[in-house]
User: Fold these one by one.
Assistant:
Number 1:
Amino acid sequence: MGSKQKPVIIISILVLAVITASILFGMGVIDFGKKSSPESGDSATDISGEATPEAKDSVESSDKDVPQTPINIGPGKYTCIVRGIDLDSCLIELYDIDTGADVEFTFTAATRITTSYNSVISAQLLRVGDVVDVVSPDGSRLDSISGDSDFKTHKDVMRFKFDRSIGRLTAGNDVYKYDDRILVLDGTHFIDVDDLDSLDVISLFYRDNTVFFIKVVSSHGFLSFAASDDFAGGTVSINGNETGYQIAPGLSIPLAVGEYSVYVENLELSASADIRIDSHKTAVFDLSPFGRVPVTYGDVNFNIYPEGALLYIDGVNTLYSEPVSIPEGSHSIRVELGGYIAFTGTIEVSPSGGTFNISLPPAPVASNDPPEDLLYNDSDEAAGFLSDEVDQGSDATDGGDNGDFIFDDSTSDSADSAYQPDTGDKKSGLKLIISCTEGTSVYINGNLAATVTGGTAVCDKPRSGTVTVRLVLDGHISRTYTVTIEDDGEDAIFSFPAMVKQ
C-alpha cells in the first residue's frame, strides 16, 4: 500500500514546484537570465515595469517628420539623410535609413567631405536632404562624409499612389516598396508621407527597389473662401475653366503651387481675383467686398396741398398719409390733381429721412365758349360744338338753320388774322408772357398773337379784363382758357399744362 502511494506523492511535489516557479517568474523574481542582462538586444523594460531609454527612443522616433533626440549608434559606416547642420558647433544631425533613427556626429577640419564623384567640398555646401555615406571610428566623430552612390533616383514623378496595407508605392508605370522608415522632405522641412497630395511633383530615392527618401519638387496648397454667404451655391472657375466646385462653408480646393485667376459667380453677383498658392498653405479669397450691399432706408414725410393729390415715386403711386420708407439715394417724384398744375422733381433721401412740402397751383380755367378758330380747327374739342346734323364734307349750299362748316387742316393763318392788341395799352410796353409746349401757337381773342419759342410766347399785354387764350399745336389737342388781365402795371404771366397728343 505504501509503495503505491510514493509515485503519487512525487508527482504532486513536482506539480507544486512548477506552479511555484511560474508564479515567481511572473512576479519578476526569477527571469531565467533572459531580460536581466544589459547586453541583451531584446531589453525593453526594467524590473519596475518602466520603459528603458532605448525603448523610449524607439517609440518616439516613429514620427519621422519631427527629429527625435539623436542616439549614439556606435562606430561604423552608415547611409544617412542630412537633417541639419550646425557649422558653428561642427555638429551634423543625420537620419539613419537602415534603423530609422536620428543620429548626431561632430566633424572637424580633418573630416573629408566629398561628392559621390569624389570631388572635395566644404561643409558649407552640405544641404538638408542630401543622401550621404558617413564613417565614424568611435560613434561620435566623423572621419568622412561622401555623397551616396548606391541610391538611384526617379525624378519628377507626377502620378503616384501609396498603399500602406502592403507597403507599395506606384509611380507612373513603376512599382516600389516602402516601409515606415521612409522620410519626406518638402522644401526645408520634413512632412509625413500622408501629407503628400496627387497634385505634388516628387523625386524618389531608392535602393534595391525600396524607396527610403522622397523630395517634393513642386508642392500644393489650398484655396478657401471667406464671407461667402451671399455666394453660397455659386460656381468657381480657375484660369477660365469651371472647376465643378460650388461655394459652401468650409470649401477648400487643393491646387498646385503657383498663380491663379479665380472667378466666382452666383446669380447677379460675381467676384474675381489673382490668387497665389504656396506650399501647404491656405490662400483665402475674401468675398465680402463683392457681396450684396445692405440697403438703408429713410422715413420721409410728405405734406401735399391740396388734399387728395396723387404722389408717384419713381413712377409708382404711393400712399403718403404716413411716413414713407424710401431707399437712400435719388428718386423722381410727381404730384398731380385735376384742376392743378402738376409738380415733377427729384428728391434726395438720407437714412435720417426728412420732410417735403409740396403745394400745387391751380390750373387756368378753360372757357365753355366755342373756339374762335372753329372754322379752322379739326379737333375733338371743336367737334363738341358742332351739331350732329352738320355735314362736314358738303358745300354750304343748302342754307340750313345750323349752317354748314368746311374744315381744312392745310388752311394757313393769313395776315388778316394776326393778333391786334388793344391800342389803349400798346404804349405801356407791358407784355403778356405764356409758358407752354414748344412750338404751340397762341391765339388771343381769336387772333394769332405769338408762338412758343424757348418755352415761352411773348406778345403785347392786352387791355385789362377777361381774354380768351387758345393754344394750338399740330398733332395735339387744342385748348382754350379764359384768363383775367389785371391793370397792375406789370407783365401778365401765365403757365399752362403741356399739350396732349391726339
Number 2:
Amino acid sequence: MSWLRCPDPRPWATTRLVCFPHAGGSAVSYRGWGKAVSPALEVHAVQYPGRADRMRDPMTTDLRQAARLVAAALAPLADRPIALFGHSMGALVAYETALLLQAKGTPPVHLFPSAARAPHRRRDAEDGVSERDDDGVIAELTSLGGTDLAALADPELRELILPYVRGDFRALERYRPDPASPALTSPVTALAGEGDPHVGVDEVGRWADVTAASSEVRVFPGGHFYLNDQLPEVLAELHKALGIPPA
C-alpha cells in the first residue's frame, strides 16, 4: 500500500509539503493541514506501516529503509518542488529522505525538523523504551504528551496500538546515521517547543550541522507536542520559510 496520503489534492499547487509523523503516529497527525495551508501548497502525509489503513503491513524496523521507500514513493511527485516536515522520530526519517532525494538530483527545497535532536546528536540513553513492559511504554508516551491516552485505556485498542508504538521505538533505537553522509544542500528550519523536557532548544539548533545551506531555529510555546496548540503559528513559519503567502 502507498506510503503517502493526500486528502486534499491540489493539481495547481506550486509546492508539495510532505509530513512525517512521530513515533506511534500516523498520517492522521496531519489531518486538517491540507485545508489550513495556502492553496499554493499540497500536503502529503506519510503513513508508516502497521497502523491505521496499513495495519496488516509489516512494521518498519529500520528508519533508513523507511526513508528509501518514501523516497521511491515521492519519485512521481518530483515534477514540483518538495519540502519535508518531520516531527520527533519523523524528523530523522525526513532527513534520511532528504539525503536520498538529493542523491537523485531532486533535493527538497526545505527541511523542517521538529522537536528532535539532529541525527549525529542522538543519545544511547534514549534507548530501551521498546524493551519495557506495556505500562513502561505507556509511561513514556504519557511523558511525551500528544497521545490519546484514553485509547490506551481500552484493552482492545491498547492491543492494536502498542505493537506499532513499540516497533517505532525499536526502529528509533536502532537508528544510526551514516557518518559518510554528505551535507544537505537544502536550507533547514528547525522547530522546537520552549518547554520540551526531552529535546532542548540548543539541541534542536544542532540541525545546522547537517546542511551547507542556511539554517534557522524557531521556538514556540509548549512542550514536545507544541504544534498541537501552536499550529497556526507553525504553519505561518513554514509559509514564510518557503516564500509562500499564507492562506
Number 3:
Amino acid sequence: MDIEKELQKQLLNERESDIFRNSYDREIRFYDIISSGDSDLLNAFFEELDKGPSDNRQGVLSDSELANQKYHSVIMTALISRFCIEAGMDISVSYSLSDIFIRKIDKAKSVDEVWELQKLIASEYCTRMRNSVKKAVVSRHVVLAIDYIRTNIRENLTVEYIASALSLNPSYLSKLFKQEMGRSISTYIRDQKIDIAKNMLRHLDESSLSIANYLGFSSQSHFIQVFKKETGMTPEEYRKKNYHQSWMGKE
C-alpha cells in the first residue's frame, strides 16, 4: 500500500473541493473549555453549532456518514478524557467514562443520536471538572465566588469587584475564601490565569502579548513577570520546553 500516494491524492482532492479541517486553535479551545469546567462557554459553543452548518469541516474517515461521525466522536472522547486528566481528573474515572461513552457511540443508530452523544459527553466531563473544584468548598458564597472567577477569568478581577458582583462585603469574602480554600482570592485568580496561560503556551502559537491581553493582565511585561515568578521560566522558555508535550508527562 502506497500511503504517500494516497496522502497526496487526498490532499489534492481536499484542495480542489475546498475541504479543510477544523482549525487547530478552535479544537484546542473546545477541549480547554471542557477541562476548565466552564459550562457557560460550552453551552454557548454548542448553541452556535446548533444554529447551522459551520465553515469548519471534519475530515472524511468513512464513506458512511454515520460511521464517519462515530469515528470523530470516539476521537473527541479520547481527547477530552486526556485533557481532563491533565487538568486533574482521576485517571481511572476519566478512562472509565471514556469507555462507557465509546460503547454508547458504537451502539448509536443515527447521526443525530451521535451528535446528541457528543454534547452529552462534553457536558458530563465539563460538569465533573467544574464540580471537582467545589468539593473542598463548604459555603455557598465561596462557590459563587469561584464560579464568578472562572466565568470572568479574562477580566482584571479584584476582591472588591467580585464582592460587589455577589453583593458581599469584601473583607468577609476575603476571610471566608482564605479559610476554605487555603489561599487568598488574589492568589487563586493568579493561579487560574497562569494555568490557562501554560495551557495556551503548550498548545497554541499565541504571542505573550496576545495571552496577556486575553487573560486581562495590565501589560505584557506584567504577565511575563508574574509567569516567571510562578514557573521559574519566561513564557517563551516554558513554550520551548513544553510545546505539544503535555500528554507525555514532561511538565
